[in-house]
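thought: fold this chain, then report.
action: predict
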Amino acid sequence: MSASRVCALSALEQDTALRVEVDGVPIAVVLDSAGEVHAIGDVCTHGDISLSDGFVDGDTLECWAHGSAFSLRTGKPLNLPAYEPVPVYAVTIDGDDVLIDPTVTKEA
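observation:
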């Protein structure tokens, strides 16, 4: 599979997560305060909650329901109650297009 356009770069708000779905895979896309775009699995591994409804702080995304924060770079949980990581996807920027392939995960 090749990468799919998920949104326009100009549509992303800094320090806010946007939920997208590519071939049935829910993904949270985040433009962090440093201007880097990240894509991680949108489902909290603790409570089956959408992470894109959570809070962005630096390079972390915190689940609004139980407070588990996940690294946007590695997908690893940084605190309990979550202890399983979420997938992290490679992001390609082509002009104003944000492209993600949900079959290709980044190595931590």
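thought: worth noting. DSSP finds no helices and nine strands in the chain.
final: tokens above.
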